[in-house]
Amino acid sequence: MLLGTQKINSKNHLEIGGCDVVDLAAQFGTPLYVMDEAFIREKCRAYKTSFEKEYGNAAIAYASKAFVVTAMCALVGKEGLWLDVASAGELYTAKCGGFPMERILFHGNFKSPEELEMAVDYGVKYVVVDSFLELEVLSAIAEDEGKTQEILLRCNPGVDPHTHRLIRTGQENSKFGFNIKNGKAMEAVKAALRRAEGLNLAGVHCHIGSQIFELDPFVEAVPVMAAFIKQIREKTGAVMGVLDIGGGLGARYLEDHNPPTIEDFAKVVSDAVKSAVAETGIEKPMLIIEPGRSIAGEAGTTIYTIGAPKEVSIPEAPGVKTYLPVDGGLSDNPRPALYDALYSAILANRAGDKPTKVYTVSGKHCEADMLIESVVLPEAKIGDLLAVQTTGAYNHSMASNYNRFTRPEVVFAADGKADIVVRRETIEDLVKCDELPEHLK
Ligand code: LLP
After folding, report:
1. Is residue 436 part of a domain?
2. Is residue 440 assigned to a domain?
3. Looking at residue 157, what is its pLDDT?
4. 140 and 128 in contact (C-beta within 8 Å)?
5. What pTM does this model have?
6. In whole angstroms, how far apart are CA 130 and each of 118, 135, 138?
């Protein structure tokens, strides 16, 4: 499977953004995250154009948690997208990338007072409120500063998106949002309206989950939200001008994965909102979508150096298992361990060779960290390069320093040129926050 601008060049090497991956590995070292800049732009534009065409008044807020570095914030900002941030760190990164605050949404189920203060000070467009406590704290902060903060209320529509249990968020018992069915959401609306000094309730939000391959759960959530908007108008007179339905569209990790296209997603969601508007008679709201994985995921590829393959066989089980060790693992991609996530890979330095042998790609941590349980590759040798695909979302952003590994470099590849957007950590970086108490010196 080749994604985005990936192709096999005349040297039989994988190329991304016109850059030969073998050269990139030699220049930057491995493991290396390569982001296909043109592919990110293509996804941003597909979202913008199709929602403009199908719906009109829509904003696409890239969910920065998927992959959040200064350059990515700058890139999506220049593409005219909005941004969803979910912590002080993400907000600060956005600021460093020059992202316009009037296009930022601030999320989180337990924002600290410091984070709320930062959101108000920076002037983010919407704080997406997720608790009664937050309503109190935020309105007090805004009032103190003589400001009125626009907010959305995170609601729980009670929809199950049929995805991995750890990335479902819209079902009744989720930790997120005010439940619509049990009346908590309406209580929150009233509480927000009572705080009109500091807060302006602009609309409602829901996010049902992630890596979703079916459009039905989105179609199911929309009428629930529209009915709630109608109920708000009937019970309080307040008109909700914004409907944010979150992110969640899946990405292609395997050859046989077929996530809906952005165009299909836009059409189905827009149709659902338009018909819910017609049925309920509510004012047509501005629509916000918060895609993360479907923008960054397929644009990322991680390049590893392969170590010595190891064949293992036990008398009790037939066949031989061949481990293919790579110079990264759990610390740069925790998703297989966390979600049993599946990945595909190719040999970057012999990209066009026929895959003939089944391998288990193992990481180099002191863990049974399998990156890919089973993948067919050409016969691999020490020093070959493995390109694991679709690692652009929730890889770098969830990377750790486990075993005191340094986090890999990230480059943006485009038009035959690769720019470093995150430099490789050094072992000195690893101890820069450590302190040695006097009595241990
Ligand atoms: N909006 C909100 C409020 C969210 O919580 C999320 C993701 C998104 C948008 C973006 O969802 P996406 O379009 O990327 O599916 N670490 C997990 C995924 C967690 C998603 C958390 N929230 C993984 O690696 O699969």
Report:
1. no
2. no
3. 92
4. no
5. 0.97
6. 17, 8, 11
Residues 337-353 have pLDDT tens digits of 999 999 999 999 999 99
The CATH number covering residue 425 comes to: 2.40.37.10
Q: Report how far apart, in Å, the C-alpha atoms of 56 and of each of 52, 60, 69, 104 are.
A: 4, 12, 30, 20
174 and 265 co-located in one domain: yes
Please state the atom number of ligand 1 nearest to the C-alpha of residue 248: 15
Most informative mutation of 84, 210, 333 for ligand 1 (most atoms within 8 A of CB): 210
Strand order in the sheet with 370-377: 310-312, 321-325, 357-362, 370-377
Query: Which has the closest alpha carbon to 31: 369, 339, 409?
Result: 409
pLDDT number for residue 343: 98
Centre of ligand 1 to C-alpha 247, Å, is: 7
pLDDT of residue 313: 86
* CA atoms of 98 and 68, how far apart (whole Å): 13
What is the structure's pLDDT at 166? 75
Q: How far is the CA of 283 from the centre of ligand 1 (A)?
A: 28
Q: Which domain holds residue 289?
A: 37-297
Please identify every stretch of the chain with a pLDDT value under 70, giving residue numbers as ranges: 170
Q: How many domains does the chain have?
A: 2
Ligand 1, pocket residues at CB < 6 Å: 63, 65-66, 84, 107, 167, 207, 210-211, 246-249, 290-294, 335, 339, 393-394
Q: Domain end: 297, 320, 343, which one?
A: 297
Q: How high is the pLDDT of residue 335? A: 98
Q: Is 96 labeled as catalytic in the residue annotation?
A: no
Q: Could you say which of 269, 297, 325 is where a domain stops?
A: 297
> What single DSSP character describes residue 424?
P
pLDDT at 174: 81
Is residue 438 domain-resident?
A: no
Residues 30 and 305: their CA atoms lie apart, in Å, by 6
Query: According to the model, what pLDDT value does residue 173 have?
Result: 78
Nearest CA to ligand 1 atom 6: 247
User: What is the CB-side half-sphere exposure of residue 214 using CA atoms within 13 A?
Assistant: 11
pLDDT tens digits along 262-309 = 999 999 999 999 999 999 999 999 999 999 999 999 999 999 999 999
Same domain, 137 and 275: yes
